[in-house]
Input
Amino acid sequence: MLIRRFRLSDLPRVLRIERMSFGPDAYSASTFLAHVFRDRRGLFLAEDERGEVLGYAMARLGLGWIGVRRGGITSIAVHPAQRRKGIGRALMERALAHLREHHVEEADLEVNVANGAAQSLYESFGFRRSRLLPDYYGARRDGIRMVLDLRAPLVNERGPETRADV
Ligand SMILES: CC(C)(COP(=O)(O)OP(=O)(O)OC[C@H]1O[C@@H](n2cnc3c(N)ncnc32)[C@H](O)[C@@H]1OP(=O)(O)O)[C@@H](O)C(=O)NCCC(=O)NCCS
Output
């Protein structure tokens, strides 16, 4: 498996994974592209030896309280047929490394309260719950904000054998 940066020609395959992963909540092509153009270098893909896209992770850089550089994970998804093989973990590692390379001290993200798989993944990196976000994903669909102090060493940096070209 290779982790590499997104290229525009990847868009159709990434959107397919997006739709399979999030259904009606999936980003549209235009929303996805808006994220890409805001920070293309924060978007990472996992691909197999044949060049098939297996998943993606999108990191964001932002401004926080004075003196603290903030950033976060906007989205992550792995092809449903490729889950539980360490791909999500490898993508998270790369996305968090990107934030660290940009001197981000605290990372945050939002996750659906019902999404136990994603919460387990984030917790395995040391993310902790910071607050409940009522109706964040729509009526009676609460979210949770999770935060990670990036100044400390990551608690869980492992995954399948990966090559990185970024
Ligand atoms: C969340 C997601 C990206 C995880 O990707 P993945 O490649 O399957 O994850 P990994 O195989 O790297 O798993 C890493 C860890 O995440 C946790 N995890 C992943 N899937 C899990 C599941 N179904 N149940 C419980 N924990 C899970 C485990 O802690 C796992 O470590 P382990 O395998 O040593 O137990 C994937 O399930 C997905 O694409 N879901 C749909 C999209 C989504 O919900 N994205 C998050 C939006 S906030």
